[in-house]
């Protein structure tokens, strides 16, 4: 079988209506339309334990909230047929490994990606371990569910697929492509007069036409910005 689509993405969710969401717009939306990747949404409620499609139950040991059952996850997962051996299974959770640009680069090389979106208090740990999900977090904060996080992760991967971005060179200059944040950007008007009448100019070096000086300025500003906003990254760079 020839695998024509660059990446097949399968989402397991309690709220299928939340997709494609942001993935249906701009360059990622165009990539979906042009079949750079495919998106299959699986409703966990279709595999619920009763006529209502219930997917969760009370946590053992007590505590607030409800937990998604492992048997529901297993049934949903077994409904998916992977078309290649080059696939990954991801569970999005605040307690997972923090997502990074390097991690996105690795994930973008898979042919197929299955993402489990948690809800309520989370997912039974047995499902995560036995069904071999890798746990990933998009940051040190808590959301109501994994759907928004899934869109973040998918967009981060899809834009790395060759042919998705119009200017691939931009990938090399973006924040986190190394240990530095990206330099500041400017565009027209060259002189911007705000509503108070104050005039703000574009840095002269950017209109000089001297690309060597521009590159040097951008590197300096990148280092400066990283040192101020992300000293943790700056320490890695030096």
Give a description of the structure.
- The structure is a single chain.
- With 238 residues, the protein is α/β, with parallel strands linked by helices.
- It has 2 domains: 7-158, SPOUT methyltransferase, trefoil knot domain (Alpha/beta knot); 175-237, Trp Operon Repressor, Chain A, CATH 1.10.1270.
- It has 8 helices and 9 strands.
- The strands form 3 sheets. The protein has a 5-stranded parallel beta sheet, with helices on both faces.
- α7 packs across α8.
- The longest helix is centred in the last third of the chain and has 19 residues, at 211-229.
CATH class of the largest domain: Alpha Beta
Strands of the largest sheet, in order across it? 2-1-6-5-7
Spatial shape: elongated
Strand coverage percent: 15-25%
Helix content: 25-40%
Distance between the termini: 48 Å
- How big is the Rg? 22 Å
Low-confidence stretches: none
- Please tally the β strands and state the result: 9
Counting helices, strands and paired strands, the structural category is alpha/beta
CATH topology term of the largest domain: Alpha/beta knot
Largest sheet: 5 strands, parallel
Q: From the coordinates shown, what is the CATH architecture of the largest domain?
A: 3-Layer(aba) Sandwich
- Topology as a string of helices (H) and strands (E): EHEEEHEHEHEHHEEHH
CATH superfamily name of the largest domain?
Answer: SPOUT methyltransferase, trefoil knot domain
